[in-house]
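Homework-ish question, so no full write-ups if that breaks the rules, but can someone show me the predicted structure for this set?
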Amino acid sequence: MPAVSKGDGMRGLAVFISDIRNCKSKEAEIKRINKELANIRSKFKGDKALDGYSKKKYVCKLLFIFLLGHDIDFGHMEAVNLLSSNKYTEKQIGYLFISVLVNSNSELIRLINNAIKNDLSSRNPTFMCLALHCIANVGSREMAEAFAGEIPRILVAGDTMDSVKQSAALCLLRLYKTSPDLVLMGEWTSRVVHLLNDQHMGVVTAAISLITCLSQKNPDEFKTCVSLAVSRLSRIVSSASTDLQDYTYYFVPAPWLSCKLLRLLQCYPPPEDGAVKGRLVECLETILNKAQEPPKSKKVQHSNAKNAILFEAISLIIHYDSEPNLLVRACNQLGQFLQHRETNLRYLALESMCTLASSEFSHEAVKTHIETVINALKTERDVSVRQRAADLLYAMCDRSNAKQIVAEMLSYLETADYSIREEMVLKVAILAEKYAVDYSWYVDTILNLIRIAGDYVSEEVWYRVIQIVINRDDVQGYAAKTVFEALQAPACHENMVKVGGYILGEFGNLIAGDPRSSPLVQFNLLHSKFHLCSVPTRALLLSAYIKFINLFPETKSTIQEVLRSDSQIRNSDVELQQRAVEYLKLSSIASTDVLATVLEEMPPFPERESSILAKLKKKKGPGAVSVNELEEGKREGELNGGGERGDNSGISASNASTPSPSADLLGLRTVPPVSAAAPSAGSLLVDVFSEAGVNDDGFLRDMEPPTESSDSLLAEGSGDSDSAPPSAVSEDPAPPLPESNELLNKFVCKNNGVLFENQLLQIGIKSEYRQNLGRMYLFYGNKTSVQFVTFTTTVTCPGELQSQLNVQTKIVEPLIEGGAQVQQVINIECLTDFLDAPLLNIKFRYGGALQNLTLKLPVTINKFFQPTEMASHDFFQRWKQLSQPQQEAQKIFKANHAMDTEVLKAKLLGLGMALLENVDPNPENFVCAGVIQTKAQQVGSLLRLEPNAQAQMYRLTLRSSKDTVSQRLCELLAEQF
Amino acid sequence: MRFLLLFSRQGKLRLQKWFTALSDRDKKKIIRDVTQAVLARPPKACNVLQWRDLKIVYRRYASLYFCCGLEEEDNELLTLELLHRYVELLDQYFGNVCELDLIFNFEKAYFILDEFVIGGEVQETSKVSVAKSMEEADSLQETMEEYINKPTY
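A: Not a homework solution, just the prediction itself:
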């Protein structure tokens, strides 16, 4: 047993610890511990009152046992007793026990808080510090409630000792982090800022962490800290290393304080005051200069401390992103580090350069290091450094070096560590897509990706390549040829089979002329992989086969034979069996015309807006229009400017057969070429997911013919093949405005308001509904001073809606004077439940120019609700009766608005159902009941809305006697909260 | 800083300090995962690694690993020196500190840490100040004789 080194020896504790260490097995250790626990328990329960020393010793033993990983369920009371001891070591052990083993037993918390309160008011600085440490260590809400008011007073009181101030500042920070609502700003805040001027460096060091955190949340209130921080920093940076005595660390003056000051400045934009800014720039230059000076010590501590400040300064320079000179110097400095013999510096330099790459001033400078970074990717021995190198390559990638970087990443993938492969694959896929100038390169890259790292290629990636091939007919033949070649490999990845199946099914005809890839060869190649694949892939292949029958009638008998075989038509998997049966039937009974219609080539995927912009729009909410304009402007700018994409857009424009108005589904044009070329890796990865997530749904659905029954399939194929979207019903009216759905959603829970407004026209709505009838008043206001002529409006019910709603309108006056308003009445009868909304087309001439716009009339199924009051019992009985899966529709979604109970109630009432109180056992939840009145039938519906305030999410469940009604209501409502 | 862990080469935990509230289960999981990740590192590897959303900074002193979980805005190099400063303080207090000192006087290791890091932030970087407050604390203790005469159990 080693001698106890110092202070209060607790021999019993030392003996116990050494016993434990001598235990030969886990069992022996547990036995020894149980013996000790029994001993301590009997001591605590015994009649004889324990003295402070024994209590301390036993509590300390319990603590030791707990830290070994065993559970402790007693001793808390004894520890609390120690808190009120006036012996320092006893108090100290008591506090340690509480800090480590805090227990939310309310009775105990009260006692603990009491003891803390006593120590805080003891005016003994050592005791005060102990109490403050304990609060900071526990940091619970109860403690915040008890002390959030007291600690600021201690912090700014004139007579508080420095050491106590330090503890108080950081204690308050901890409480602010856990319960910001309990730490109230007050007159103390301004005094806290002035702690930056404190004589005592330790006080400044502690206080600045608090100030930084508070500034992030309340930047305006703490603005004055900027100039104070700059002058403090400047004094440290320009001081000789000996000036600061104790606060000099291995010849570096106050590294912790310097870094914290630089970190605080990163909460603010560059100082506006010229003098302050000048001084700061001078500091930053001095820091950069010092990096070039010979080291004052060979110790790693010296260089680490010095470089820590340097990296923090570079972070600040990058944060300001406004001083080209400093940015380039920073980049050069990091460039030196890239080849430094210290691994840590190489790692950090790579990391820091990633952020530099996104600045327009330093992007080019970062790019000059490409060879070094590629070399790092190949030669670094440490995987975490290689990972950073890959990140940096990704960040510095632009159109000029994309091919080189993608090639390097691909070759690295062959040997990459498993831990980072998936991320690498995503990065390669994103870069290839983002910077694809010619799409055959893109196709090659993705197929290579699947070949090299197929297991790590997520669905999103291969969905994407298919979308791009579908939408760009200049690459389809190439893709078919390449994927056909790739499939020749004896062992190829299942993802390759999926892509191959899909692409050959669509475009196999483009390479069928070559006898080496004749239809039958293609089919046999695909089918040779069939048995090695999982069910989803097999299902996809079956769809490819039926497409083959359409593309190549000569393969029909071979394929029918395959479909007819027992392993298909009697397959134990329902999906496969169903496909086999249906495809077989389809191929034998449908005429070639029908077959050609059903199995027509995939239509192009709709153009999707850049997901980055979509995100921006969501954030901005009402300002969406301006973002729209911005996007528009960018596109024009890019087209007119010619830019780097000049050639390529020329090709796609001249390519008249490209069916989509813009095949640019990547949103390439909306991404400014360089400056925003490298947003942080994280956000981009998310983008790819979100975008692909939306796409994949439609992709698979589109690909598969309906599988319900072969009847419906044929019906749809022959009858409705030319059913066009509602906008195309009549040639003349404009298609509905892109925002018309949004406008419609605004009126789900209300009946009156402004439906639409632009610079010329405002349309207001008032409506009322009774049973299955409704009356709507539309008010058209001319906002200009010029008259509108030939003003006409038409309301149409597209498609099925014709038989579901009966809408009658009165004709409006064809002339609206400037500033005047006309009214139109619309009568609506609901015949049966419906999904779509009627379209309102408005045409008029304003100053000679024809205005033509189409909106959706906010008539939604819920308008025909009759509220139904019912008691809890009835509600649940009814709820249970509607328990068939298709009767229920459910959505879980994020709150779009503040989760205010009153607002929610108002919206639910506006919906038209009865809001039932005291029905749901959870008072937070809302339940509603109502009956939809249509001429044909009544549809009873129940609703349950469960808010989760913590996660800011809702779960919405609807049950109706009719499944389409549940679905529609669920869709409509999910947009409302 | 989110947490500080001290563990031996065999993966035995010697000290754990958490600066945010976590459940026991989460703590155990972090201890297990981080210990494994750090012990698996080859010698001379970089002292920083990314682990989930945290930056792990570690350094080995003799048989003991000192390991911190950092947030995005924390400075890695300076954290390495924070660990070094902690070792210096332990060394100053115990006199040529070794792993055994931290096992038998684990409570002291916690007290010294509290003197210079609170809530994951550095409160005092001066070695003199920290040492002084530890000494003051020790001087408040009762005399040794008082203890030696007490029974061990």
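Now go work out the reasoning yourself. Hint: Strands of chain B lie at 3-8, 13-18, 48-51, 54-61, 64-70, 117-118, 121-122.
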